[in-house]
Amino acid sequence: MTSLILALVIGAAFGAVLDRVGASNPDLIGKMLNLTNLNLAKTIILAIGVGSILMFGGQMLGLVDVGHMSVKSAYIGVILGGVLLGAGWAAAGYCPGTGVVAAASGRKDALFFIAGGLLGAAAYMVTYPMWEASGLLDPVLGGSVTLGKVPGSEYDALTGLPGDILGICIGLAFVAVAFALPERLVATPSGRQQPAE
Fold first, then answer.
1. How far is CA 31 from CA 18, 57, 181, 187, 189, in A?
2. Is residue 24 exposed (0-12), middle (13-18) or buried (19+ Cβ within 10 Å)?
3. Is residue 65 part of a domain?
4. Residue 190 and residue 104: Cα distance in Å, rounded?
5. What is the mean pLDDT of each run of 10 residues along the chain (197 residues)?
6. 150: in domain
7. pTM for the structure as a whole
8. Which residues does 194 contact at the CB level (< 8 Å), separation at least 6?
9. Does the residue 120 lie in any domain?
10. Number of structural domains, the chain?
11. Rounded CA separation 5/95 (Å)
12. Transmembrane ranges (predicted)?
C-alpha cells in the first residue's frame, strides 16, 4: 500500500510540474514543434540530462540498483510507432502523459485525446497477432542493448565503452545543449505578435 501511495504522490507532483512548465498546453507544444518558442524543449532536454547524470552517477556510487534498469528491445515496429507518436503529438498537441495532465487540469479536448489513445491501444491489442507475424516486432541491433556496458546489468553493449561514464557524458551534453539553445530558431511570422508566456 505504501508503494501505491508513494507512486500517486510522485505522479501527482510530476503532473503538477508538467503543467507548470507548459507541457500540458497544446499551443505551447505547437510553438515548440514549429521552433518559434523553445523554452519547453529546453526544459525537456535539461530534465533528461540531469536525470541521466543522477541515474548513472547514482549507479556508480551504489545508490541506484542496476537490477531495476529496464531496456526496451529495438525493432522496426517501435521505430514506426515512434514516427506515429511524433505525428500524433504534433497534430494533437499532446503526448500520452501530457494529455492526462491536461485532462486533470480541466482541458476537455484532452479527454478526446485520451479516448483516441485508448481506442488505438485496443486496436493494437486486437491486431497484435498480425503485427507479430509481419516481422515488425523481431529484434534488430541485438534487441535489448545499451550504448555502453553498465556494470552489474544483464544487457549487452553496442560498444566497449563504460556505460556509466557514457551516460554521464551524454547527460552533460544534454545540459549544455539546453543552456545553449536560443529561445527560438524561427522568427514569429510578421504581423503576428508573440503573446507573453
1. 16, 34, 15, 11, 12
2. buried
3. yes
4. 35
5. 87 89 88 89 93 91 80 84 87 88 91 92 93 85 80 81 90 96 79 55
6. yes
7. 0.77
8. 36, 37, 188
9. yes
10. 1
11. 25
12. 43-64, 110-131, 165-182
